[in-house]
User: Fold this.
Amino acid sequence: MLRALTAAAAAAIAIVGVAFAAAEAEHPQDYPFSFDSPVGNYDMAAVQRGFQVYNQVCAACHAMEHLSYRHLGEEGGPFALYRVRDHETGEMTMQIGKPEHGGTFVDVVDNPYVRAIAEEAIISDIDPNSGQLTDRPGRISDRFRQPFPNEIAARASNGGAYPVDLSVITAARHGGADYIRSLLMGYSGEVNGTLYENRYFPGGWLAMPAPLGEGVVAYNDPEVPQTVEQYATDVAYFLQWASDPHMEERKRMGIVVLAFLVVLAGLMYLAYKQVWRGESH
Ligand code: HEC
Assistant:
């Protein structure tokens, strides 16, 4: 019996091995993202830069239909605005992204950064007076602008391939953020018709041309390198946040629940000692 089971297990492992070999894809590089550990948070500066990369590069082909501009400025979002008191001067200042201590969240309706991001997007809509299609600046309540009106148009512009929606991509792909980061760095430069060689893509060839190159996005912070690796890492941060915007809150709650259970276990033990005091058992 045991031998049969062992043989079956060995056969199963061999089959899985062949399946992986057939896919030819390299295992994604394991990058130490700040959100990896059970208590890890998002590096909000990286999420902000990642949005910039998405907005200036990826958004030309990929929609994120589950996101509206206002999500960027909601609590826990990369452009959330907080009112904070300066320790030295005592004056109130504004800060983007969660401050270390305290701070009052400013409603997204009053957030000029998110409003500016939305207004930069040109949204096509129906004119309320003429009933004709017109272009207008985006509002914070708008969904992220879609690059193509429909799937047929998207395929027609991309050699027949469909640029998937990126709203929940890190949850939808094995390897999550590590896979996205590796994929963007994995181009060999070989081109075959409309296909591009990439060692992290199952099958080795995909229809997306290498979207990133040195210096394609200009970061505000001169300390941050403008390299393909940095862009890939930052956009992976942003896509991870987009797939799981409430992670920080959930982890915080997990810690509270664990602390509560530890205290409860202690109390239960004391109660048990009290109830059975002097009894022989
Ligand atoms: C010129 C258009 C274009 C741009 C710009 C572009 N993509 Fe793509 N992308 C595509 C197409 C087309 C596919 C589908 C490829 C295929 O199925 O062979 C794709 C596929 C993908 C996939 C899915 C891979 C998989 O496992 O199925 C991811 C993830 C992705 N792109 C991320 C990005 C990111 C992040 C950016 C910005 C840094 C970006 N793309 C920029 C066209 C583009």
Observations:
- Residues 17-22 have pLDDT under 50 and may be disordered.
